[in-house]
């Protein structure tokens, strides 16, 4: 491979990642595209080819034969390159939402994929989006690993573009997978899925308490804008819309739970 093509970094015994050049307020350093394959496998599975960047796609395709492409969820920083990457590699692209599949079938919750010398269990984890999935590799090192997409990030917290009730249930389901290595779509690798899910759940319940307190002060007809001003007072203007989306999801959750 020529010297000017980026090389994937080892992230676990069965995975490597390659950072796409799309850093921003919502993508942290950029999208981590993952390559899954047993060390002796001649082929790989690529997860989230990412934004449409020819250099990034060429670097992913230049490693080993790509037999399958998987998508963690529908957001464009994960899916914009899907059609182009399918063209480049001839590999089918599979996602939970049929609209994001290319020459492949939709993923099913609980489905076991055998590819590139590994076993990959599909876990449907709605909440960040309705179509989010995590990919569990039980044989990847002593604790296994989980590619978490945007459901669990390497730092900070995920936004809720689905429902909070779904998201909390997904975090509980992930926590039950044990202390697996966390391979997030943004940010660094983390050592312990159970610990991070525990922290995420605590954070969400703390935010819910803050929204409850804001409602008690402002009145139960307080607007999303007013609550965001109180609960997310420290939030940068660039991600204000994400904070508002979180407040909207929390209000829907609290009103649904009445
Ligand atoms: Zn996303």
Adjacency order of strands in the biggest sheet: 1-2-3-4-5-6
* Broad shape: globular
Q: How would a crystallographer describe the biggest sheet?
A: 6 strands, mixed
- Write the CATH architecture name of the largest domain: 4-Layer Sandwich
Which distinct ligands sit in these coordinates?
Answer: zinc ion
When the domains are counted, the total is 2
- What is the helix content? 25-40%
CATH topology of the largest domain, by name, is: Metallo-beta-lactamase, Chain A
Number of DSSP helices?
7
Q: Which runs of at least 5 residues are low in confidence (pLDDT < 50)?
A: none
SS elements, strand count = 11
The first-level CATH class of the largest domain is given as Alpha Beta
Overall residue-averaged pLDDT value: 94
Report the structural category: alpha/beta
Order of helices and strands: EEEEHEHHEEEEEHEHHH
Whole-angstrom Rg: 19 Å
CATH superfamily of the largest domain: Ribonuclease Z/Hydroxyacylglutathione hydrolase-like
Which band does the percent of strand residues land in? 15-25%
Structure description:
Strands 1-2-3-4-5-6 form a six-stranded mixed sheet. Strands 7-8-9-10-11 form a five-stranded mixed sheet, with no helix packed on it. With 258 residues, it is α/β, with parallel strands linked by helices. It is 33% helix and 20% strand. It has two domains: 9-192, Metallo-beta-lactamase, Chain A, CATH 3.60.15; 204-257, no CATH class. The longest helix is centred in the C-terminal third of the chain and has 26 residues, at 193-218. The site of zinc ion (ZN) has 4 residues, from loops.
């Amino acid at each position: 491979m020529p010297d000017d093509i980026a090389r994937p970094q080892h992230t676990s015994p069965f995975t490597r990642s390659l950072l796409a050049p799309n850093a921003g307020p919502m993508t942290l350093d950029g999208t981590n595209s993952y390559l899954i394959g047993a060390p002796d496998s001649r082929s790989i599975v690529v997860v989230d080819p990412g934004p449409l960047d020819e250099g990034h796609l060429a670097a992913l395709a230049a490693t080993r034969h790509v037999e399958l492409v998987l998508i963690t969820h529908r957001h464009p920083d994960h899916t914009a390159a899907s059609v182009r990457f399918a063209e480049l590699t001839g590999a089918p692209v599979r996602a939970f939402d049929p609209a994001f599949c290319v020459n492949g079938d939709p993923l099913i919750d609980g489905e076991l994929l055998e590819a590139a010398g590994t076993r990959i269990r599909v876990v449907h984890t709605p909440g960040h989006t309705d179509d989010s999935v995590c990919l569990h590799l039980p044989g990847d090192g002593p604790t296994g690993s989980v590619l978490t997409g945007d459901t669990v990030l390497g730092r900070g917290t995920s936004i809720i573009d689905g429902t909070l009730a779904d998201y909390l249930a997904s975090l509980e389901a992930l926590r039950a997978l044990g202390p697996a290595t966390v391979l997030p779509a943004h940010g660094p690798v983390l050592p312990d899925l159970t610990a991070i899910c525990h922290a995420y759940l605590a954070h969400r319940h703390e935010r819910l308490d803050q929204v409850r307190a804001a409602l008690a002060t402002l009145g139960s007809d307080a607007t999303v804008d007013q609550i965001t001003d109180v609960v997310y007072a420290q939030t940068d203007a660039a991600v204000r819309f994400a904070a508002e989306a979180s407040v909207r999801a929390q209000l829907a959750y609290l009103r649904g739970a009445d």
